[in-house]
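Researcher: Go.
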Amino acid sequence: MKKFLLYLLLTVNCSLLIAFDYDFGVILDQNASLGGLGGSGSFEYSGILVPRFSTHFSDMGELYVSAGIQAEYLNDAGNIAPELLRTEMSLRFGALGIRAGRMAYSDPLGFIAAGLFDGAQVFYDTQAGIFNAGAWYTGLLYKKRANIAMTGAELKSYNAGLDWDDNSYFAPSRMIAALGWEHPALREFMRVRAAVLGQFDLNQNANLANLDLSGYIPLHSQYLAAKVTVPLGAFIFDLGGGLSLMQTDGTWEGVALAGEFGAAWHLTAPFDSRLSVTGRITSGVTEDTGIRNFIPIAADFQGNVLKARIPGLSVITLDYLARPLQTLAASLTSSFFIMSDLGYTEYPANIEGNTNYFLGTEIFGRALWSPYSDLQLNLGAGAFIPALGNVAQDADVLWRLELGVIFSIY
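Model: Structure:
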């Protein structure tokens, strides 16, 4: 009996070693930049060390764990912030898939809720498409990673320095739920994505960077988003739209609209390249109709130099990306910024009393060189030019230089 148990134990251990494969790596990502208005500039630095580990459970699923220690120097102040990054368990049971942990999620448009969130998501694969449902919480994320600023208090919390004596590390507390559907080849030629999302403001039960929330009014919102992608030979066309409903403490606030369009042309001679145009259009405040600013839950900044938030803003971008060598790629981007709302407050110049809408144009170029698979260097430079608009044509040019290095150990 003892020999049988020993044999069984050895068999199980050997089976586990065969069924499970492991992967471990470390990534060091460092970025330095210099930028400012006119002739003045300031230095910024950020670096993050990310160890990661993953293993597969035969054909059933995967465990992925990653964390980071980030060092930042911004506005003449430095801080170090540890982070738990993407850390999730994914399992597959035939047509059913389950993910749980800290995972990446993105809505169909990519600017309503996009990033890392804590929660779980279920997928079901059918002939009619892939259906999914998920729920996530944001209050345990690092605020700079989550980038949530739906209210004035949240924006103030985001901009507050990191202090370990209060709650200034954590992102605002919101609960997100989403139902989605995706078909990779509807009618055998177009990809369709659609989702219904809702978020619930839980900040009254939390503490935003030690701010007084006694008079805080919760903001809840719901979203409907859809996007269609159609490839036609060397071209790819995108068209999407979104609608948002908002309530503050049970009071109806109005409806907001957003749209996205894009077209890309892939060229192969004399080398691989792509020319594309994209547009993100959002509504502004219109008192007579009840139309409001489109306020996303968590979204990236718009522009490499201006780095503006999307509420009250629309952006049209022309981009050229080329890869003349296998190890070298370069891009040149021109973005035109339009205020959807005259009350837009993210612009760095004084525009009080302005009655125009065209903020200006940003031009940014970037070169990426990867001589080895574990090393990447990138250099970027650009400027936002108010004179190429009509809001503040005499304002100083906003400029930025960037240098980044990514080193990986697989």
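Model: Residues 2-19 form the longest helix (18 residues).
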